[in-house]
Amino acid sequence: MPTIDVDGCSIHYEARGEGEPLLLLHGGMGIGGDWRHVFPSDPAGYRVIVLDLRGHGRSTNPSRQFTFRQFALDSFALLDRLGLARVKAMGVSAGAKTLLHMATQQPERMEAMVLASATPRFPPQVRPIMAAMTADTLSETEWNTLRQRHVHGDDQIRMLYEMVRGLATSYDDMAFTPQLLATITARTLIVHGDRDPLYPVEMALELYRGIPASALWVIPYGDHGSVWAARAAEFAAASLAHLSRSG
Question: 229 lies in which domain range?
Fold first, then answer.
């Protein structure tokens, strides 16, 4: 798995296939390999770019600092390394938040994107959940599962839990106003579960109303991770149909 050095971090990625570039960004505490739950095989006609976000999986993060804004800069650095001026993209949760930053930092580089389980900001009810996140209550089975995914030792796993706790007091990283969302030019599909326990469906509506060229798919009875589970095949099909649209 090749790497790129960004700001002292080693970012691991894969670039596979031939065709239009398609960037896939996983969720918080996940890894790039999670996309196999959506695409058991890479979608035809795309050059798929999958990375482990800094501090996740095989990627490192010596600074121990996490922001979605920085995830976006890391992703742009990778696209620059690969010589890709313009891409289509999909992101789930943390990956979707990263795409919001990418689409507002450099709008011209994002042709179309899919945002699953995203939010323009952290609502009050999610902050206590974030603040309570800890690795101290993990069972040995859970530790072993995480060790297989995040390969740099137990400190890396604890650092990821610190990342989530830190979000509880973060107010400037995820702060997408209607005015800022209006600068997004990417054709956007917003996917959201109507039972998402972290971000109420109203958050998806804010994104839909704010992003000019957007469509909204609300998944009935869907939770925060619906697109990884029972609705994965449907999510894949709807996403690829959206990305292939000409307008």
Answer: 3-122+174-244
Predicted confidence (pLDDT) at residue 230 exceeds the cutoff of 90: no
Q: Is residue 86 part of a domain?
A: yes
Q: Please indicate, yes or no, if residue 214 is contained in any of the structural domains.
A: yes
> What tokens were used for 32?
């790039």
| Total domains, the chain | 1
DSSP class per residue in the chain: --EEEETTEEEEEEEESSSEEEEEE--TT--GGGGGGT-SSPPTTEEEEEEPPTTSTT---TT----HHHHHHHHHHHHHHTT-SSEEEEEETHHHHHHHHHHHHSGGGEEEEEEES--SB--GGGHHHHHT--STT--HHHHHHHHHHS-S-HHHHHHHHHHHHHHTT--SSSB--HHHHTT--SEEEEEEETT-SSS-HHHHHHHHHHSTTEEEEEETT--TTGGGTTTHHHHHHHHHHHHH---
Whole-prediction pTM value? 0.97
As a whole number of angstroms, the distance between CA 146 and CA 138 comes to: 10
- Output the pLDDT for position 130: 97
What is the distance, to the nearest Å, from the Cα of residue 195 to the centroid of all Cα atoms in its chain? 19
**Are 211 and 184 within 8 A, CB to CB?**
yes
Per-residue pLDDT tens digits for 104-152: 999 999 999 999 999 999 999 999 999 999 999 999 999 999 999 999 9
222: in domain: yes
Say if residue 1's pLDDT is above 80.
Answer: no
Phi-psi sector, 29: left (phi>0), alpha (psi -120 to 50), beta: left
